Amino acid sequence: MVLDHTVTSPLPSRQKSGPNSTKTALKNLQPGVTEFVIHLAFADDEMKAATRERDTWGAAWRQRDFDFFTSQEFRHLLQEQNIKLVTWRELARAARQ
């Protein structure tokens, strides 16, 4: 399966703007299937220990992403921008048809 677009947020912009870079990306989506590359996690002791040597990719920004992507604000933005979330299973079914 080939995706139309992939969105990753450069680390410096994620650290400075947090969800703002994601909001901008959502508002500027092109038609087609887009994959957002995100790494959600809780900033708990386990995640802090697992990422202790990687401050730039650590628990704090994973928690911020989790908070944003599970928020009412995110759901509202999806609705406002007419964005439909799909699963890999749905994409595979569509590809077979």
Give a concise summary:
It is built from six helices and two strands.
Overview of this protein structure:
The chain has 97 residues and is mainly α. Helices cover 53% and strands 6% of the residues. It is built from six helices and two strands, in the order E-H-H-E-H-H-H-H. A two-stranded parallel ribbon has the order 1-2. The longest helix is centred in the middle third of the chain and has 11 residues, at 59-69.
State the main characteristics.
97 residues, mainly alpha, two-stranded parallel sheet, 6 helices, 6% strand
List the helices and strands and how they pair.
Layout: E1 5-7, H1 11-17, H2 19-27, E2 34-36, H3 45-50, H4 59-69, H5 72-80, H6 88-96
Parallel strand pairs: 1-2
